[in-house]
Design goal:
340 residues; alpha/beta; nine-stranded mixed β-sheet; 9 strands
Length: 340
């Protein structure tokens, strides 16, 4: 069972309900992966591959490189949410390579595009470094429904596998369901949860940092309530949470992760910019890539607001949240999906 530090105004953890939120994976999700991450990635990116890779492969089967092919390539990249900036950069670079290297066949163009996508996305591949801080304090933010709490649970599972102790701070004090969901993840991962039924989220996180220091816990994962960048009073509140963390630990927070739902497409750019202004985003978790045909948003992020993509999610299973690796990601866009 999970540990749960009670406060005077704190209720006992309710038993898991039969209608536990769908984004809390079932026990079967905790089972060892039956297929490799590469195969999971290919399967998870199937929709984007159909939209982007499928159309590109069709274009690249043509007899020659011409203006019509390049125009259709531009439309395909835009439809996949690569964004105007990234699309223009890719096309300019491709045209330059066609001229300089005298590319003649669409197959050569496809190889050039693959290389350019890897070059464009390469700065985003920066794995999370826990460094020498203990406790290592991670603040998790994002809009409603992006998958913050689920990502926290999956991260805890990964950190436990790596031999690290973890503590949760239930900083989302607005939604009772969020607190209960975090408790359930705590139970599954044998993680202590610091929570209150109501109150100041900054105070909850402050207490969690103190508890982690007293217990010698290695990592604090601080959940925060979902909010839209346009809700200025809530953006100020999350900025306060960050300031309070710094009072509890002057070197913290050591990582500020923004969770992005890949389905929002170009709106992700505005989310990154707004949250970065408020709390200083240091890394991204891009979730639900399996549910969208617009995985090209990573290219837009790379051009307009490059932040390290620490993890990507391509499914509901606990193994479906993995570090972002550029070559695997680009290859999965063009390779056939794994058969069931």
């Amino acid at each position: 069972m999970f540990g749960f530090l009670k406060k005077k105004d704190e209720a006992a953890a309710p038993p898991p309900a039969s209608d536990t939120p769908a984004d809390v994976a079932g026990d079967e999700a905790l089972a060892p992966a039956k297929i490799s991450w590469t195969e999971r990635l290919k399967a998870g990116l199937a929709k984007t591959r159909t939209q982007l890779g499928g159309q590109l492969n069709s274009l690249f089967r043509r007899a020659r490189i011409d203006d019509e092919l390049l125009e259709e390539l531009e439309s395909t990249l835009l439809m996949a949410d690569c964004g105007v900036d990234a699309t223009q950069w890719l096309l300019d670079q491709l045209k330059d390579r066609v001229k300089r290297h005298r590319l003649e066949t669409p197959a050569q163009l496809q190889q050039a595009l693959t290389e350019l996508l890897e070059t464009l996305l390469a700065p985003l591949e920066q794995p999370l470094d826990l460094g020498g801080h203990s406790p290592f304090i991670m603040m998790i933010a994002g809009v409603n429904g992006a998958g913050k709490t689920t990502s926290i649970g999956k991260l805890a599972h990964k950190f436990h596998d790596d031999g690290h102790s973890v503590l949760f701070a239930a900083g989302d004090t607005f939604r009772a369901a969020a607190r209960e969901q975090l408790m359930e993840w705590g139970r599954r991962n044998d993680v202590t949860v610091i929570a209150q039924e109501s109150g100041d989220p900054a105070a909850v996180v402050f207490d969690a940092v103190g508890a982690a220091r007293a217990r010698g816990t290695r990592i604090v994962l601080a959940d925060t309530a979902g909010r839209l960048p346009t809700q200025l009073h809530l953006m100020e509140e999350i900025a306060k949470v960050r300031r309070v963390i710094q009072k509890a630990e002057p070197t913290g927070p050591h990582e500020v992760l923004l969770v992005l739902d890949a389905n929002v497409g170009q709106n992700a750019i505005q989310q990154v910019k707004a949250f970065d202004k408020a709390i200083g985003v240091t890394g991204l978790i891009v979730t639900k890539l399996d549910g969208t045909a617009k995985g090209g948003v990573l290219a837009a992020i790379a051009r307009q607001c490059p932040k390290p993509v620490r993890y990507i999610g391509v499914g509901e299973a606990i193994e479906d949240l993995q570090p972002f690796r550029v070559r695997e990601f680009v290859a999965a866009l063009f390779e056939p999906a794994a058969r069931a």
